[in-house]
Known about the structure:
single chain, mainly beta, Immunoglobulin-like, 6-stranded mixed β-sheet, 6 helices, 33 strands, globular, Cu_oxidase_CS, oxidoreductase activity, oxidoreductase, metal-binding
Amino acid sequence: MINRRSALSVTLATGGAALTGAGLTPLLAARARPATTTTANTPAAPAAAPEKFRRPMPLLPEKKPTGRTGKSDVYVMTMQPARAQILPGGPSTDVLTYDGHFPGPVIRARSHHPVIIRQRNRLTVPTAVHLHGAAVPPDSDGDPMDVIEPGTDRVYHYPNRQPHAPLWFHDHAHHLEAENVYRGLSGSYLLTDATERALPLPRGRYEVVIALRDARFDDNNQLAYAMGDRARNTLLANGVPYPYFQVAARKYRLRLLNASNQRRFELRLADNSPITQIGSDGGLLTAPHTTDRIALSAGERADVVVDFSRYPVGTGVVLTNTTGTGPAEQIGEVLRFDVVRTAHDPSRIPERLRTLPPLPRPDTERTVVLRMDEGGEHPGAYIDEKEYDPQRVDARIKFNTSEVWTVTNANARAEHNFHLHLVQFRVLERAGRPPGPEESGLKDTVHLAPGETVRLQAVFDSYRGRYLYHCHMFEHGVRGMMATMHIR
Length: 488
């Protein structure tokens, strides 16, 4: 936990500001400062826009276990500073990393095969590692106040007693998570099971994790961080701006992650050809969904299949983005797929992917209201008109019960999204209507447009203890849009 000396030093350095206040940002940024930190009103001088489709998109490295203890695979991971050549030419960029990789590595785990990870903090700031979407004991959930101090280690236990899901891990140290994640502290954790492995979906080299995010760079190629910055207009795929990715003329399974602090993507192929969505945050949908767009708010994942056999060898097709702030020439194109060869393709997409159990009759219902001050230099952010207080319990939940939550974005202009720790839930309604096919599976994060309401249902039957629920736009959580539920 954050100790008394750490808390006191924060309070003194900020003139006694509350631990939920935005006034912490300059201090904490100074402790972590490997690059440019600014205020939202005084952005750093921008770097020149990189030329598109000149560099290949790298595959994310796969992390291998160092051994086994009993039935558990054991990993050792080091959080450390590093330098990455993100922009072509000129200086490399200072980043914060897991094992020196920007973005972090991919861990492949199996249901009912536990994983133990020793996280070694070799940074100058506290960290807390949250396995997003996972059902884990409370002492391994990465509570924002339960931090790994610089120079120390922490062991996290992941029982993996849940079905397959494309999880991801990221920093969650309160008041630091936004900048720590922005500077690189995130990675992927693909949990699989027998149901998923039995399907004839693309696999091996034809299953590709793509972590998407935005960034802003100063004129020295350094990441410029400002709280709530809406000028992050360089798009990165697996850590490279606007890359190309060479593919064969066959089906590919693309595991998409929106690792941005707050940007929402709406992804399309430039020729409007179909994309088959087969999964979301909590794993496979019950049936494939053919669409021409994939929408992902911060923290959401989508599992899609694109059939490149429709294109002749030599074709390039751009993955575009049709939403968000920034000039279209900077935020309108993400990466380009280049079809460079033919290949045998034994994969196929079954008509049925999985079976989800029927929802039980809910034991209770509750409402949650997200709101942020619209205007002012340091706007507050609230759940049910309260800023986050780690000492307060906001929702008391009886173990082994099911609840329906009605979540509302009370803002007229600001977007939010909503993430529940511990559980995967089902979306019942969006704006009074049944959810679309893309939200028909298990979810842990949902987008809420201004004024929008979403109803969801979750079953709390895995662990007892305290867990968070919050907006997963990191800067909103930093400002106080988080709350605590106690399952007992």
